[in-house]
Each structure stands twice: as C-alpha cells, then as structure tokens.
Amino acid sequence: MSDHSATVDHKADDHGHAAAHGSMFDHVKVYLIIGALLFIFTAITVALSYIDFDKIGLFIWAFDKIGVHGFAINIVIGMIVATFKVCLVGAWFMHLKQETKEIWRPLLFTFFFVTALFLLFVFAYSDPIPGSVHWHH
Amino acid sequence: MAHDHAHDAHGHHDDHGHDDHHELGFWRKWVFSTDHKVIGMQYTVTGLAFLFFGFCLMMLMRWTIAQGGATPLPGTLGSLMHTIFGDNVFVEVVKDGVKGYTLSSQGYNVFGAMHGTIMVFFGIVPIAMAGFGNFVMPLQIGAVDMAFPRLNMASFWSFFISCIFMVASFFVPGSAAKSGWTNYPPLAGIADLPGSVDAYGDLLGVWTNGGTLWLLGMVFNITGSLLGSINFITTIVQLRAPGMTWGRLPFFCWAQFITAYLLLLAFPPLESAAVMNLFDRVFGSSFFQPTGLVVTQGGTAAGLVPQYSGGGSPILWQHLFWFLAHPEVYVLILPGIGMITEIIACNTRKPIWGYKAMVGALFVLAFLSFIVWAHHMYMTGMGPKVSAFFQTTTIMISVPSVILLTALLLSLWGGSIRFNTPMLFATAFLPMFGIGGLTGIPLAFNAIDLFMHDTYYVIAHFHYVVAPGTIFAIFAGCYHWYPKATGRFMSEFLGKVHFWGSLVSINVLFFPMFLQGMAGVHRRWWDGGLTYANTVPQQYLDMNHTVSYGAWALGLFQLVFIFNFFYSIFRGKKIPNDNPWNATTVEWDTPTPPPHGNFIKPIVVYRAAYEYSVPGAEKDFTPQTEPPAGTPPPPPPAH
Amino acid sequence: MEIPYTVRPRPDTGLANPKLGIWLFLASEVMLFGGLFAGYIFMRLGSDPWMWPKGWLNVPVGTFNTFVLIASSVTVILAWESLKMRNLKMYKIWLFITFMCGLLFLGIKLSFEWPAKFGHFGAYIQKEVAHKYEPALGNEDRVEDGKVFDGHLKRKGYPRLFIGGHLTEKKDDPYALDASSVPFVPEANLDAVLALGKDEKDPAKKAKLLHTREVTLKGIVVRPADIAELNKEPLDPAKKKEILQRMNTIHFHKLDEANGRPYDPANDRPKFELRPQFVDSHLVLDKRDLIAGHGPLVPKLNTYLATYFMITGLHGAHVLAGCICFIYFWLPIKGGAKLFHTNPEQLCNRIEVSGLFWHLVDLIWIFVFPIFYLL
Ligand code: HEM
Ligand SMILES: [Cu+2]
Fold first, then answer.
1. Nearest to residue B361, comparing CAs of B387, B319, B386, B330?
2. Whose Cα sits closest to atom 25 in ligand 1?
3. What per-residue confidence (pLDDT) applies to B10?
4. What's residue C179's pLDDT?
5. What are phi and psi of B73, to 5 degrees?
6. What is the pLDDT of residues B131-142, one digit of tens each?
7. Domain extents in chain C
8. Residues B592, B487: contact at Cβ < 8 Å?
9. How many CB atoms within 10 Å of residue B524?
10. Class of domain C17-119+302-374 as given by CATH
C-alpha cells in the first residue's frame, strides 16, 4: 500500500490504527536507505570538488564534446550529483513517486519555467552585441 | 445568521471546527473578515480608490506636459498640491506675472513612477483579479467560500500593508520612487539614498526613502498576490460544486485560474529581484550596479564614484523584472476578458462561440507568456540570435490573443443584443482591445522596435489594452455584478453618460499618442518635449494639448461613475428578483446579497455555463443548476 | 459554514486542500529560488574571474550542516510515520529532534559562519598598482598554465588581487569597521568640508552648515577624537597631515595565509582540513589603490558575498519558519499535539504539509552547499 493513498483508503476509519499500516517498517527502511544515500553523496560531492577534472584526459575529452572546459567541468559534475540528490529527496521523501497528476502538472510547468529562466538568461548573456551594455569583457 | 445551515452537498463532513452561529461584530464582519465576498469588496474599493489616485497623478502630469513645465497650475490647486507633496515635487514658477506652483522635473519622475506602479499593482490587479475574482469566482463554482479563508484575509492585509508603504513613500524626504514603474537600476539602486552615493551613518535614512519604500511595498504586494493565487487555484480545483466539471466552468473562472497560475509562477522572480535591489540599497551590494559607475548629483557635484564594488549587471534586473512583467500584462487583461465573456454571453442571450477554443487559447497564452519577456529589452544590445528567439515567440503569442478576440466578436453575431450599460462597455472593449493588441505586433519585431521603443507609440499600445480594455471591463463588471452585491441597479442613465463620455475622451487621449510616437516623441520628456523641440516636428508636440484635454475630460466623466457608485447604494432601483439579468451562471442562484456561506440550497450543476436560448426551452435561459426534466430532486442535506 | 475537504481528500482529485495548497506554495518557492539562482549565474558569469573567490567558506562546517539538515529530513518523516501509527510518544520524539536539528543548523550559521565573515577585513587591489603589493600577492610565482617555474608544480590562475586579514586598529577603534570602507579623501575635499560655515554671518545658516560639517566629517573620518582635533582653530598642519594619513590608509596586522605566505602553492586551493588562518605580519594599504567597497566580508565587498548572504539568509529564514511550525505542532496546544486526541488525521496532515516544506528547504540547501562552498 502506498503511504499516500493511506489517507484516502481509510476515510471511513477515523482512528485508524497500526493494523492499517502494517508496512510501516518497510517505509522506515526505505527512508533510512535514502537518508544514508544522501549522506554518502554529500561526502562524494565534497570529495569530487578536490579533483581537478580539467587535468584528466578522459574528462577533458568527454566534456569537450559538450563545450565545457576548465573548472566548468567540476561545476557540471557537482551539479549532476546535486540534481541526483534532489531527485532522491523529491521522489521518496516528498512522495512525488506516488503523487497524483493534479500535483505533477503544475510542477512540470514550474520546472520548465525555471529551466527556461536559467537557459534563456545564459543564452541572452552569451549572445551580446560587442560594445553594448551586455558586453562585459 | 439565518443561512448558516447551508452547506455543501458533497457527501461527507470533516469532523472538526463547528459552526459559529453567532452574529459577527462589525470589525470581524467588515474589516477583519474571512468572507470571500467582503474581502472581494475590500479589494475592489481599495483598488478603485488607488485607480482614481493614480489617475489624478496622471492628470497633473498632463498639465506639465502640455504647458512645458513653466506655467503655474490654475487657481489654488498648485498651492494645495505644494502643501501636500512638498518642495521636492512642486516648485514655484512665474508666468506672465502670475505666481504659482507646478510639478517639478523631479516631481514628474515621482508621479510617473508612481502612476505606473499604482495603476498596475495597486489598481487593476487588486480589482480585476483579487476583487472580482474573490467576489464572483466562488459563487460561480458553487463554493461556500475560498479554500483557505484565513489565508485570504492574510492576502488582503499583506496587500494593505503594501498600500501603506506606497502612500507613505510620498511623505519621506525626497518623496516617492522616481525610477519608473519598471524601477530600472542603476538609478533604482542609488536614487534618494541619504548622501545619494554612500550612506554612512544614516541608518534610518537608508530605509525611509522613496526607492527603498517602493521595494518594501512591492515585497508585501507580491507576497499577498502569491498567497491569493494559491487560494484561487486550490478553490477552483477543490471546491467546485458537484456537477461543475471543468467543461462547465464559466469562462471567467477559467480566466481566474490561468491568471492565478501566471501570478504564482511569474511573481517570485520579481520578489527575488526586489530583495536583491533592497540589498543594493541598504547593504551596498552590487547586484545591479556595474563596475565604474559615476554619478552626478543634481547636475552639480560631478564625478562622484559610488561606494560599490561593482561587478553587477543592470540587465539582470531587466530580465527578472520582465520575466514577471510580461506575464503580468496578461494578468491585467485575462480577468477583464473573463468578465467581458460573461457579460457578452448574458446580454446577447447566446452561448459563447468557441468556448473550448477560448479555453485552449488561454492555456497557450499562459504558457507562451513566460518565454517572450525579452521583447521589452531589444534596446539593451542583445544579439541577433536572442532577438530572433524572442521575436518569434512574441509573434506566436499574438495568435491565441486573436483567437480570444475573434471568438468574442463572433459571439455577437446574430444575437438580439441587450445594450445596457455593462454591455456597452463590453462591446466597446472589443475594438479597443483589438487596437491595443494589433499595435503590439509591430513592436514585436526587433527592427521596428529599436525605433519605437520608449516612444509614445508604446504608451499608446499598452494603454489601449489596459485603459479602454481592462478598465472598461472593470466598469462593465461593476455595473453587471453591482445588483448581486447590493440588491440595487446602478443608474442606467448615469451609466450611459459615463460610457459615452469615457469612450470619446479616452480615444482623444490615446489615439494621438500613436502619431506622436511614430514621429519620435519620447515617453519620458517631462516638459512635453520643450528641451528637444527641434528633434520632432512641432505639430506632434502640439498634440500634447489635445491629449491633455482628453485626459481631463476623461477625469470629469469618472466623477459621474463615482457619484453613481455611491448614490445607487441608497437610491438605485431595487432588483426585481435574485437573478435580474436572467443569467445562467450559479452566482445568481443565491439570495441577494449572498449571506455568509453563500447558498441556501445545495448546489448541483447539470449543464454547461451558457445555455441561453436553448431551442425548445420555455425560457431563453436555463440556469446551470436547473436539472434536466425528470431528474429527482437532490437528496436532503445529511447533517 | 464548513469548507469541504480541509482534512479528507476530494474523491475525484484525490487531494485535500492543504496538500494542493502547499504544493502550489512550493512551486512558487521553486520560482523564487530560481530567481535567486539566476542571479547567482548572472553574477558569476559577469564577474571578473579574479573577483569570484574560491575557498572562502569553511567546508567541514558546511558539510556538517548539510548532514544536520539531511538528518532532520529523515526524522520529520519518521515523525509523520509515527503519527500515522497513532504513536504520540515517538511522534514527539522525532519531531523534537527535527526541531533541534533546525536550530543547530541556524545556530552554526548565525553564531559561527556569518560572524567569522564579519570580523574579517578584505580589499581588492586595483590591477594597475598590484605590483606595489607583490610581496603579499605572490603573482610573480603564478605563471601561465603549461610552464614549470621554480621547481614547483605547474600553477595557473588569475592574478591574486585580494588582500585579507585583521585590522591593526580594530581593538581600540570602534569606528574601524566603517572607516575601512570609506574612500580615499583628497586634502582638498577635507579642506572644503572644514571650510563649511567658516565665513557665514547669519547665525541660523551658520549652525546649519556647522551641523552638515559635523555629519560629513563623521562620514569620512575615523575617530571622534580626530574630529575634535580637526575642528580646533587654528588647526595644526602636522596634526592634519597625520589624520589625513590615517584616513587614507588601512593597516593589517594579521594577514590571511594566502597573503602572509604568498609563495606557498598550498594556498592556491581550498583545503578540507583546518589550517592556521592568519599570519602575523604588518601591511599598510593606500586607499587610492583599492577598489571601492573594501571592508569587512559583507555583501558590499563583492558579488560573491552578496549572493552568499542573500541566498543563505533567505534559506535561513525558511529554516526558521520551519522550526516555528514544528515547535507549534509539538507543544501541547490546541493546534498542536493536543489535536492528536481530537483529530489525529488533521495533525497528520499538518505534519505532512510542513514536512513537505521542510524537504524543500533541504532540497535548496543541496544546491546551495556546492555552489558556494565547493565550486
Ligand atoms: C497581441 C499581442 C501583443 C504583442 C505582440 C505585444 C508586444 C509588445 C512589445 C514588443 C512591447 C515592448 C515595446 C517596447 O518597450 O519597445 C510591448 C509593451 C507593452 N505591452 Fe504589449 N503586446 C501585446 C499585447 C499586450 C497586452 C494584451 C497587454 C496588456 C494587457 C500589453 C501590455 C504592454 C505593456 C504594459 C507594455 C509596456 C511596458 C513598458 O515599457 O512600460 N501588451 N508590447
Ligand atoms: Cu510584453
């Protein structure tokens, strides 16, 4: 039984008790595993920041393909790890895995617009007319 | 209260919080109310007051523009204004031996910035969205109240605090904000700070000046809007009466729904920008302050270097601001279109043509409105690729706008139209909004906009959409729903005087601005172009007089409305029944005025929103709550 | 009158009102922080590389705080699960731990991390005059990538132009903090200020001018004692010179490791293990050589600190809001733990909703931590 529908399934049961939530210990196990993963990946993030990826041939080669160079490689890798952690929190702790479409839909738009905000900002920044206000260097 | 037993027919009850059967006192009922109708009226009345205030600022500015800034205001008006607003805003001038006061150039900046801010954030949005939305929307979906009544009250009070900040800002040293409603840095980051460039020691002065108070006001205003939009969406999703499916939702509610989403997702980035700007002003950071900025103070102490580390970007503010402010223009117009749709359906006695296409258009419009913002920024020197992108999306967004307008125009076709005052305003809305929208299309093209940007053409463009557009819709809404709120009609005769007077004068006011703009008259010349007289053919500057007469005439006709509004509360014609316009939507299915809890019978919806003139029906309207023949009456409430 | 679906879900949407409400709120929060992060991106792209510092924050402490926040995310869920089991005791324990984690996070931030920045002074040297401070900057040794110099490893990087440390005068000078951020004052400007009101006859106007003079002097001069000295008539020229000199220089007595031992390659990147922070060494900076905004490590100094304080500040405000909710639901009051006996389902909803908010706060920190502390 998904923990979300718990409240839905038992609407007749005002003072629902343990019987209805027999799988609680499974849940707790899952939460602890996710918590542990978050700890581990935090440690990994810190460790990764001490590696100079722009000194390692494989990474230089791979990131060159997407036009990322120098310290930016570290940034991209750090952001990938952070995004992964955020997905863990969202999917399990915030139960997005079992959420209804009424919740998902607005969130999808939100993610789309935040992404648009970031990407278009960078896009606008990267395409200046030389000598204009946009032109910093 | 007699109708407190009214309740939802939704089947079960939550086992908490039992009814308060006692009569609420004056303060709880009218001031700190949680009733959506009272909150709606609070918003509407506050908003109308601000609309009028903002309009008065503009009428004074029109004097300066028409008279070139050197002529005293007529009569004692000047000294009165000087007493209210102080030395910084009104200066003494002498012309032909007549001594008096007129708006100074700084004062013009104050009034210009505050006119825009007030009209947009304190006038139209509070009335069209929060006011009418609060009053009408829950009634239309058959809900007892908003989903979170206390949050609703919090929204209003957050808004009210922001009002206090804005009004108070006129009375601090240096007067209110001066950097336009768009509040562009670097000016917005340094103007009016004590000592102007670096603020040592004067901690109070850093907080109490026009620019800072503007930002604080906006933070509260935005917070109120965000809480309100959460409430609107939850209410529409959760509290629709049984049978009120999405397909039966009145278009006004659809418009409110989409508008709430626009506010919810577009406003927060402006809130963050406002916080950054506050940091710049009170902590001296450099989010929007570029490296190497040099400031001159009042034209005298030249070459002051502000104490900023620099490295910030004024363009960042523009991005964050327009990320909100383009969706914001749809926040301004969509509730208006919603009201117009209700009024047109009711007065043409026909279903709306293309209801589904209109709802679809709303969605497309809302989506696209998030990715067109930089069409306000072509002049900032962004490159051809970025321009091409935003130009394309901007042109795309005009398609849904045109769908909305076309559907409404076609809805008129073949109707036997009842031209009462609300319908007159609604009909006039269509061509006026059309002019406004169509004149936006040239602006979408980078090449044309580089010439048109910041001219009166842009002013005319957006005023056609918001003034004879949204504000006419607001008037239409006032005349239309007034009977539900008060039990009386507003005077038809005064209404028609108001309408025809406004229609003519508003066009005298705004139409010449297109011509001026195309001739190159800049939108922020405080003296009406005197200083730049030889850059523009004189006949275009002379139009300033025509425009100003239009403005003052328009002001005069609003007095008729104000009189009508208050007079009719006491003397207006009483309505014959609870549904005086013979409308189909659910808000007319309540007692008048609706009690706390709204309905005295369980509401079940059986049909689409606009079943007017259904062939074979005995009346020319079939309310949404009327069961199809042969349906058993709904079960008695299970209390 | 009752609002339907305040506790139980509406059958066709499967949602109760608070659940939908909080998710909409979270959506707006995502956009809010989206705006802030967009600001970060812009600031970082737009700043000159040598002005965007690395390794200014204490990584071990930041990591610890991250762990605290993650742990609290787990405990708040456990509190919710206990509540669903109708186990009041465990609920209270877990919720209290969550609350304490929140406080610990805030405590570390406000009592250690931020003050450590406020007590530290720094200044950027203008590029053109950097050679004057070469012994403390060590740029001669920082060569282009690809070259080996002086037997050291290859090192590259933008020129080091930041000098940080503790001020000499700070101990006995209450105005040092402000004064260090005051710009260079040319002698002529000082004379102009001192001349204010000198020849004015009208006593009312004179008083006004004298007041302006007092205020302006306070704005640009270090000590009240100096003001008194400057106001003396006649003014001793030697004294005036001395005061001017004091106004226009900054004295460090403890320099950052990086400036104290500029040629040590270890100072070129942040370290996880704790190292001595300061080196005793005296250095005098001429204010003319500095970029405006120098002073304590506050938002004024550079855009990195501006974004850091703004984002962590707003994040901290969210942590505080979460803590207030939790303690409210924990205390045995009508809207809190007492609700367990009358309407446990509603209390359950409240914890779920505030838990969702708490996870968002955690989630934002997951991004904040690397972008400020590590990258
Ligand atoms: C048909 C679609 C529309 C298009 C293609 C369009 C296009 C534009 C463009 C390109 C500008 C920027 C002009 C400049 O500053 O140089 C502009 C300004 C503006 N538009 Fe529109 N627009 C449209 C509809 C609307 C609507 C429906 C509204 C409001 C309800 C509106 C309100 C505004 C406002 C307020 C501004 C000026 C803001 C300012 O600079 O102060 N527009 N429009
Ligand atoms: Cu726009």
1. B330
2. B437
3. 40
4. 67
5. -65, 150
6. 999 999 999 999
7. 17-119+302-374, 124-296
8. yes
9. 11
10. mainly alpha
Hey, are the CB atoms on A82 and C367 less than 8 Å from each other? Answer: yes
Confidence band of C181 (pLDDT split at 50, 70, 90):
confident
Q: Which residues, listed in sequence order, are joined to residue C255 by a DSSP beta bridge? A: C165, C279
d(CA C184, CA B400): 58
Q: How many CB atoms lie within 10 A of CB C322?
A: 24
Within 8 A by CB and 6+ apart from B236, the residues are B137, B141, B249, B253, B256, B257, B260
Residue B394 has pLDDT above 90, yes or no: yes
According to the model, what pLDDT value does residue B200 have?
A: 47
Cβ distance of A127 and B384 shorter than 8 Å: yes
Ligand 1 atom closest to the Cα of residue B181 is: 41
Q: How far apart are CA A90 and CA A95, in angstroms?
A: 7
Interface residue C192 vs chain B (CB under 8 A): no
pLDDT per position as a tens digit, B142-165 = 999 999 999 999 999 999 999 999
Closest ligand 1 atom, residue B395 Cα: 5
Q: Is it the case that residue C368 has pLDDT exceeding 90?
A: yes
Structure tokens that stand for A18 in this block:
């343990």
CA C116 to chain centre: 9
For residue B394, the ligand 1 atom closest to its alpha carbon is: 5
What DSSP assignment string belongs to B139-168? HHTT-SS-S-HHHHHHHHHHHHHHHHHHHH
DSSP for residue B634 = P
Cα B290 to Cα A134, B310, C53, C313: the distances in Å are: 11, 5, 18, 23
Contact across the interface for A89 and C46, Cβ inside 8 Å: no
Q: What is the DSSP string of A99-134?
A: --HHHHHHHHHHHHHHHHHHHHHHHHHHSBPTTSTT
Peptide bond into C203 cis (omega under 30): no
- The residue among C274 and C284 whose pLDDT is bigger is C284
For chains A and C, count residue pairs whose Cβ atoms are closer than 8 Å.
Answer: 138
Tell me how far the alpha carbon of residue B369 lies from the centroid of ligand 2, in angstroms: 8
In this structure, what token pair is assigned to residue C67? 């762990």
Residue C304 confidence (pLDDT) above 90: yes
Pocket test of ligand 1: the residue of B258, B450, B461, B513 to mutate, having most ligand atoms within 8 Å of its CB, is B461
> Average of pLDDT values for B297-319?
72
Nearest in space to C159 (alpha carbons), one of C173, C146, C176, C140: C140
Residues 6+ positions from B549 with CB-CB distance below 8 Å: B508
DSSP tag of B632: P
Return phi, psi of residue C284, to 5°. -110, 125
The one-letter amino acid code at B312 reads G
B21 within some domain: no
CA of A76 to the centre of ligand 1 (A): 37
Does the pLDDT value for residue C152 go beyond 50? no
State the CATH number of the domain containing residue B549.
Answer: 1.20.210.10
**How many angstroms is it from B446 CA to the middle of ligand 2?**
13
* pLDDT the model gives residue C367: 96
Q: Which amino acid is at C333?
A: I
Question: Measured from the CB, is residue B128 less than 6 Å from ligand 1?
Answer: no
In this predicted structure, what is the pLDDT of residue C245?
87
What's the rounded Cα separation, in Å, for the pair C7 and B332? 34
Find the domain containing B383 and state its range.
39-288+316-571
Listed range (A22-36, B43-57, B533-547, C109-123) with the worst mean pLDDT: A22-36
C375/A27 touch (CB, cutoff 8 Å), yes or no: no
- Among C3, C36, C342, whose Cβ lies nearest the Cβ of B145? C3
**Residue C174: CB atoms within 10 Å:** 12
Q: Which residue owns the Cα nearest ligand 1 atom 41?
A: B182
Residue B556, pLDDT > 50, answer yes
Domains of chain B: total: 1
Provide the whole-model pTM: 0.92
3-state helix, strand, coil in chain B (%, to 5): 65, 5, 35
